[in-house]
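Ticket #4471: structure output looks truncated?

Reporter: J.K.
Steps to reproduce: submitted the chain below (246 residues) through the standard prediction queue, then opened the result file.
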Amino acid sequence: MKTAFNELGKSYQTVANELGISKTALVNAVVHGVFPSKNTKQFKANLANHFIKNGVSVPSILTQSQNPKTPISQDKDELMLLRKSTLNPQTRRHFGLAKDPFDDEIRSSDDIFKSDDVRYIRERLYDVASNGGFLAVIGESGAGKSTLHEDLHDRLFKNGKPTVIIEPYVLAMEDNDIKGKTLKSVHIAESILEAVAPSEKPKRSPEARFRQIHKALTESHKAGNRHLIVIEEAHGLPIPTLKHLK
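Returned output as attached by the reporter:
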């Protein structure tokens, strides 16, 4: 669904505002395929209508029926989320605030505080996305890694860089099968095929599947596209997968 969403040419916050939903719920649906446990059918219908209204093909995941055997409960997480605080126009006018100070949406690179380290990492990310390479961004929780990730998306889109961004599904990912689900090279390969050639079905045998992916990447490159793999929470990757990525 990420490919279809990118065709809208809008930010997550803009679409969320137009649909009257939270940005978190929208990102979970588009990036991770996780829908709210309540009013799921209505959520999918509203999102599908938004794609149609903007002339974009509706992703198949929005037309699939929900599996009642595996409900996703987010009640606990929702109780932990803080309600968004806003200022009414009269308060903002009284204090001379042209912009809502509680609005953390990043609309341009000007909204990012650029220390020397952030400025360097931001340029390195863009260089790797444009010219190829391998880069690991390391930082504490809340240091701004996800912000730089969103900024890279926006920067590539605004600069007209024909880049296919591949983001493997990493929910519940751990570095071994005892703690959780490991991300193997075959999963990354499937993500590549889904992003580059979403209409193709993966071949069954590993040999045929990797040849299929190689052919799809070659054809996409000939069409002028560059390809970028972004893995969130990459510290949870098992060592064998890291070696395969090399």
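Triage note (M.O.): checked the attachment and the full token line is present. The chain has two domains: 2-80, 109-245.
Status: closed, working as intended.
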